[in-house]
Structure formats: C-alpha cells, structure tokens
Amino acid sequence: MKQRIGLLARLITGSVWIVAGAIKLPDPAESVRAVRAYDLLPEAVVPTVGHLLPIVEVVIGVCLVLGLLTRSMGVISGMLFGLFMFGIASAWARGLEINCGCFGGGGLEEGASSKYPAEIARDLGLLLLSVWLVVWPRTRWSLDAVVFPPRAGEVSPGPGDGEDGDVEAQRQQDR
Description:
- The chain has one domain (2-174).
- Helix content is 63%, strand content 2%.
- It is built from seven helices and two strands; from the N terminus they run ααααββααα.
- Helix 4 (70-93) packs antiparallel against helix 5 (116-135).
C-alpha cells in the first residue's frame, strides 16, 4: 500500500509543481509582482526569487513525476509548501488582499482573503504528501530504483514484488 500511496503522492505533487511553474514561466514580471505583493522579502531579492521560483517549481515537479531524487525533492517541496502557507497566513493576518500567485497572477485582488483558508488547506495537503515522500521515498516506477539500485538487504519496489515492495513480508502473509 505504501508503494501505491507514494506513487500517487509523487504524481499529484509533481503535477501541481509542473503546472504552477509552467503557468508562470512565460511572464516572469507577473511572478515578481506576486512575490513583491507578500511584502516579506527585501526588495533586493524579490526579482531573483520571482524569476527563479517558476524554474525551481518545474524542476521539483519533473523530478517527482519521474521519481528522481524523490526524498530530496520531497524535502524541498515540503519546505516550499510550508513557506507558502506561512506567506498566505501572514498576508491574511496583516489584512492584505492579494492573489496568492500560486498558479500565475499576483498582486492586489479585492476579496482575495476569502480564498486564503482553501489555499492554506490545499498547501497543507500537498505538504503532507511531500512528507510522505520524505519518509517513504521508494515508490513504484521511479528512476531512483534505476539510478540508485537497492543496497544489500533492501528490496526494490516493482511489479513482481509484494504490495509494498517487501517480498519477505508478502511471504509471511501468504503462510
């Protein structure tokens, strides 16, 4: 079951990252505007963060979908979702009415605070999926299994293995 949950966690979280980043790539000025609207970072770093964030999002997403560097990408993904939740909560607490910029857009938006609870809940769910991948990074159909084959005593997840990729546990169940 862990293998299936991990695969779903990889595909869902990775797809969200790819879509979020790809939407922002064509208009870097809009991404910079979204970062600036939170009023959390020094102005000197806002343009750099605004330009790099979409690229980082796409890279994380592609790695997760492919199952490459899953644990590391899960850590980075979880940290970013935590930062995003902090940013949204901070904007909410300060009475800012801004588009979160999560999937493009950004800047002032009338009535935006009504969306903050749903945005925080979404990011919390994605944070939990990211944490799952940090704890259980080995999933079916991942490049990690090819690039980093299991060490002695470990079992590689695969279609012929037990549900969790643990042949011995499956044998115990079959008895």
